[in-house]
Structures are given as structure tokens and as C-alpha cells.
Amino acid sequence: MAPASCALCPRLCRADRAAGATGICGADDTLRVARAALHMWEEPPISGEAGSGTIFFSGCSLKCVFCQNHEISTGNFGLKIEPERLVQIMLELQDQGALNINLVTATHYAHLLPWAIGRAREEGLSIPIVYNTSGYELERAVRDLGDLVDVWLTDYKYASPDLAAKLSNVRDYPDVARRGLAQMCREIRRRGGIEYDEHGTMLQGMIVRHLVLPGHADDSCRVLDAVWDVAGDVPISVMNQYTPNEGMRVAGGNLARAVTDEEYEHVLDHADDLGFTTLFWQEGGTVDESFTPAFDTTGVLRAADA
Ligand code: SF4
Questions:
Q1: Which stretches are transmembrane (predicted)?
Q2: What's the CATH number where 140 sits?
Q3: Is 63 within a domain?
Q4: How many angstroms separate the CA atoms of 164 and 154, rounded?
């Protein structure tokens, strides 16, 4: 059942979701999913050759002005399903050969995860659970999921509170992300550290992601400083796939363009200088269809109901 005074994320907006009210994230008392399918373009330890079983949840507690998935994050696009269907979806993705179950932006549905993951495990789910998050997570939320989540695939978006306030409307993002990351590190250490299988697929651990924003390479370097300070030499993914959406193109300024090679190299050099030994980086520039799959409700309904 949805919380009556929701405090699942750092917004702490206290929406009475149990009574059908909608929180800042767009979630109410229903469960909505926009897509559930294999995805080949996560980092190699996540997607491997076979693909990651991604489940894109509707809604998001951040409101990033440059979001590439705005139809589902702010538009709340998706189909309403019952929690039992979420269990079936996980098992179907495993049957399709997924290396893991990749829960994309599930923060506002965290109340359902213990039951859904537990039930799926009882019914034969044996692959890792990846928790794919904006990084805007409460420490206690991370702790509560510590035994359920095998791999934390977490963004670390900003070092500057001003930038976080301007672009995602959350001034406390840097502080929250820092605490959340520290808790993720504690959870993984408690479970014995990072583990891979013989093919290099991550079975347990974390990857910290950072999207470089045009005109903000210096903030990216401060993000890397923070990650190094909190987590040390963790696998890190520095991305240059920023692509201006319609709103950003109209607004003009730095965020109306792509990241330059010089900006990206500046950030990658800084990651090297800090000492990160597992660094994922991108050869392409702006985003293409493969990075943003069609949110067409693939895999959300039972085949018989679709
Ligand atoms: S998860 Fe949604 S409803 Fe709950 S506190 Fe966060 S924004 Fe509010």
C-alpha cells in the first residue's frame, strides 16, 4: 500500500498517496511502468552481451530541466499495473536472458520492492537486482534496500548547490548524494565488496555515473573529487551524451549545445589524475535512440493483455 504521508525520498513531501494524492514525483497510490525490456547500452558490467533487464518506472522526484526521459519523469507516462505483475515482469526478463533486473528510478516505489523482489526470488529469480537511481536518495532508504539491491548504479549529478537548485530544483542534492553514496559503500562493504562473474558482469557492487553538462566541466571535476573522497576508487562512468531537449534549445545558453571534446577530456583527465582505475567513458557525443529507448510500454502488460 502506498504511504499515507510519503517520506520515501528526500523531498519529504508527505503526500497522502494512500488516499490517492500525488507527490512531487508524480506518483500516487498506483504503480506505473513505461517499459520493461532488455537494454544493451548500460556500462559493460551491467549490459554485457545479453542485455540488462530494465524496468522504467513512471515519475521522478527530481525535475531536471534537461531530462532526456521527460515523457516518463515529468509526464508520468506509463501503464498502471498491479504489484503482482511487477513480479512477473522480473521473471519474464530473466527468461529473456537478462543479466540482471535493472530498476530505473524506483525511489518512489521503494515501499513495494521488498515484497516484489522477495516474491520474485521465491518464484525463481536468481539474477542480481540493479538499482538505477538519480543519486537523490535518503540514507535510510539505501539502508532499507541494502539486502535487496545487489548493484547500485547511481548518478552523482552536481557538486554545486546552486547548480542543483537551478537545473533540478533541489539545492540539497550534493549533500544528499554524498550521504547516499556513503551508505551505498557501507552496504557493499558489509556484503563483502564488489564481485564480478567470469564474464565481467557485476554481481554485487556499484558504479557511479556522472553526466558532463556543457559549460559545467568544473562542477564535474568537483563531483569527481566528492566521489573519490567518499567512495575512493569505485568504478565510475563519465558520460558525454548530453543532448539538449526542446526546452533547452529554446532557452539558449550553454545547455542548448553539446559538450565539447575539450570539456569532456578535461573531466576525464581529472578522473585519471584522481586515480580512478575503472573508468567508463563514451566515444559518441550526443544521445541517439539506443540510449533513450522508445517508451512504448513494451513488456509492461502480460502478452495476453497487450
Ligand atoms: S517519493 Fe514522491 S510522494 Fe514520496 S516524498 Fe518523494 S516526491 Fe513526495
A1: none
A2: 3.20.20.70
A3: yes
A4: 16
